[in-house]
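DM from R.C. (forwarded with permission)

"hey, sorry to bug you on a friday — could you get me a structure for this? deadline for the figure draft is monday and I only need the backbone to look sensible"
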Amino acid sequence: MAIFVRRWPRNPKVCLLCLSAALFGTVSLFVVTTIQEIDLSAREGQDGLNCPAPDDVGVQLIRILGQWESHWRANGRRKSSANNDDDVGFPLSSAVQALIEDGRMAEETNVRRLFFLADVLQAFKERRSQAGRDENVTAKIADLVKIFAEVTKTRSKGGKNYHHHHHHHHRYPHPKKSRFYNENDTITWQLVHNEIDEYELYSKDSALVERLLTDIATVPIEDLADLDDDGTQLKLVFYLEDGSRILFKPRRLPRDYEEPLDLYYMHEFEKHTAEIAAFHLDRILEFRRVPPAAGRYVDMLRDIYDHADEELKDTFYRSPIRNQCFFGLCHYFCDAGHGVCANDTTLEGSVVAYLPSRSVARRTHLPNPWSRSYSKYEDADWETAEDGAEFCASVRKEEPWNDPRALLNVIDAHVFDFLTGNKDRHHFEVFEMFGNSSFSILFDNGKGFGRANTDVVSILAPLYQCCVIRRSTLRRLIDLETGEVKLSELMRRSLATDVLPDILTEAHLNSLDRRLGIVLEHVHDCVVQLGPQHVIIDR
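My reply, with the result:
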């Protein structure tokens, strides 16, 4: 242990030399102790750290490299975010490379050692993101909260009503309402459909939604509809005894499964838990644009096989441990190598309430200007644009995005998708009767919550390229950031009401708090650059 010095030297070159020597003197202890036992949040507040423990070495290197990370955040984020499909942040190995190019560290042996050290310390960065935010981000969010409070106060003095709950109902006192069914009907799903208006699928105070969640999870299955094989994933459509339809997605993966980083988004598995979690998050955000979703257990023989046609029955088989399995019919992932297996015959899955049929309520299909290319060989226009603001300006010249409400709906959707990690938003649908500027229905959320420790910042491209956000959305995000109960805890409590256990892992719950901060950081950067009057829009 003689290689350690008593006090941490201030000379950066000497610091790195100390780190290099420390690594090879105690590498075993370093890996075990730092990754499994260190509490970074307790140590990062200390000044003048001593150098006798490997964990202190790791923390100190993170501080040094953090300076480079801050520089990158300030100068390169927008361009990087727009062009990097999996923008997970500033790699520690890149920071070491920056130090080398800067001439602070040129010895070949120590360079090799430090690259290895940087890879090991990636675990530190993940722990730090869970333990607490970068001070720079925290300061930006605090500044944004202050700015927003001042803007709200100023506007209130102007005599306008700026209550943040349902502000659109104050601006539009008589929202267009749906009346798809007779008002005397008493079936829950029909009553819920009658609550749809031009702003949301159901009202904030609706008691019907809780009844609907119970119904779609418990009302007996009467029949199996024609298989929905239009997508890449296995889905089933059930008719319930109350006459409603539900979309069933079976459990394919364990809760802690993480999609490989080398896998393209179009080839990711859909997760039944993501559908359920998306509904709860949407409700917490007060968007109310995701159709009600819940967990449900079905019997593969009674509820599926007995109602299936011969083609579907041919995909049923027993696993080596005698669980009932099937692989179904769809374009992709429907083969014996991707079978779905029950626990004996009990299969877990998600169920999503159907929207009013298209014969009752026609819907308009709107391609997403910020959709990904769905190609392994080329990027979308928004990803290759040299100037994101110019790309946004070109979008705003086209219908319906020339209406501020329609564009803000897109940004709301991408904020929502960033929180869930969903890159698969290729189009939007709106109810034709309400017009193209009415709320966008946020369905098909199965590809969210795939990677808990990867923040795909490019999902936020509409936000940082257009630099506008709906005032009520920002108000809610700030409330969630500054409230006594964190977003992760609100989600934990909400998901606990579902019949399925542990719908999201702790890592995915924690990712919501982290990503919320990233959204607010981008809004702050826009406000500083353009001024709040041009960024915070009341529509």
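R.C.: lifesaver. The mean pLDDT is 80.
me: no worries. The first strand starts at residue 221 and ends at 224.
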